[in-house]
Design a protein that fits this description.
By secondary structure, the chain is of the alpha/beta class. It contains eight helices and 18 strands. A hairpin with a 2-residue loop joins β13 (211-217) and β14 (220-224). The structure holds flavin-adenine dinucleotide.
Length: 337
């Protein structure tokens, strides 16, 4: 099918973009080589409103969470597979410092209803969720292949502009290097996860203490994820396995845990920890949607809607996520040399 807009890459970013275009009646085509490097294939799809050692409320979670919930619920109805599960997080305190941080921030009302009961060992995070990203990628791919809109090929986004009005690069780690968007200061962090056979876990509880354990289905869970900043290969390692196996045993004391699989992928970040969307500043027929970091499930639906609003109503991209923020800096640096 000939379409004026070509989406290159059908990971989480490309899938949400294509879905929002389909909803809005915007003609599009998608190409994806086959997910072999897709971090969306190995991502747990966890949306956790409070993360990190410093217990930080996720950026704009109050606005982004309802958008994500609505988008994934619509997708599961359209694709006919369950994708969205409401979860709670049992967050374990690492030390007294974390106890104090929670008490201070809670007393200031920073977390609102995201923090539930608190006890000596940890606290409950409410309003979390899990999106089944592998199921989303597979079923969306089948839908667009059947519609004749998706081709299983690789292509160079920059070189495809000639035959399309607009080409949007959603290629994750593959696109985050040279090429037309080389002025963007891409950063990477490799992550590994293990698949576990383990019985008796509550299906809606993520245990989080350093690493997390996520129940996936009866007798199956994932433990993850490691962070190796600056590393961009997708090969599983013995070190990754050892560290995650130890965490699984620590987080699930007294349970019989067997490792059944191991996967790795690469997160793409920007230094300001915000994603990046928009048109190339000098070649406006080339767009980008990348840098989802460790929060793609929360961010991707709202960012895809920004693309739709831009194309249908001419709305500018939010300056906090727009690609221009890096162009301005790189142009200033170039002119000072
Ligand atoms: C171990 C791990 C755990 C994670 N856990 C979570 C989590 O719990 N929650 C969360 O929100 N996020 C998580 N993430 C992050 C999440 O994976 C990313 O935010 C998101 O999936 C990135 O999606 P993407 O579409 O930008 O990139 P990708 O998923 O990498 O997709 C890019 C796609 O582009 C295709 N492609 C590349 N080059 C070409 C080309 N030249 N031509 C055609 N197609 C091409 C690839 O085949 C791929 O399908 C995790 C990441 C890792 C590594």
């Amino acid at each position: 099918m000939r379409a004026d807009i070509l989406i290159v890459g059908q990971g989480l970013a490309g899938t949400l973009l294509a879905w929002e275009f389909e909803r809005a009646g915007i003609p599009f085509a998608v190409v994806d080589g086959g997910h072999s490097t897709a971090s969306s294939r190995v991502a747990a799809g966890i949306i956790n409103p409070i993360t990190g050692r410093r217990l930080v409320k996720s950026w704009r979670v109050d606005q982004l969470l309802p958008v994500a919930r609505a988008a994934f619920r619509e997708l599961e109805a359209a694709l006919g597979v369950p994708l969205w599960q409401e979860m709670r997080v049992r967050r374990l305190f690492a030390d007294d410092r974390e106890r104090r941080v929670l008490a201070d921030k809670n007393a200031r009302g920073e977390f609102g209803s995201f923090v539930g009961a608190v006890d000596h060992d940890g606290f409950w995070i409410e309003g979390a969720a899990r999106v089944d990203l592998p199921a989303l990628l597979t079923t969306a791919r089948e839908r667009w292949r059947a519609q004749g809109r998706l081709r299983a090929v690789e292509c160079d986004a920059g070189a495809s502009i000639g035959s399309h009005e607009l080409v949007i690069d959603c290629t994750g780690v593959s696109g985050a290097r040279g090429g037309k968007f080389s002025f963007v200061p891409w950063e990477y962090s490799k992550g590994e996860v293990l698949t576990l056979a383990v019985n008796g876990l509550a299906p809606d509880v993520i245990v989080n203490g350093g690493h997390w354990v996520l129940p996936i289905g009866p007798g199956v869970a994932w433990v993850g994820a490691t962070h190796q900043p600056g590393v961009r290969d997708v090969g599983p390692t013995a070190d990754g396995r050892a560290v995650l196996e130890q965490s699984a045993r620590m987080l699930l004391p007294g349970r019989n845990v067997t490792v059944t699989g191991q996967m790795a992928g690469v997160r793409v970040n920007l230094p300001d920890k915000r994603p990046v969307v928009g048109r190339h500043p000098t070649n406006v027929r080339l767009g980008v949607f990348n840098g989802l970091g460790a929060k793609g499930a929360l961010l991707a639906p709202a960012l895809a809607r920004q693309w739709v609003n831009h194309l249908t109503e001419g709305m500018p991209f939010d300056v906090e996520v727009g690609v221009e923020r890096f162009w301005a800096r790189s142009s200033a640096q170039a002119s000072s040399h």
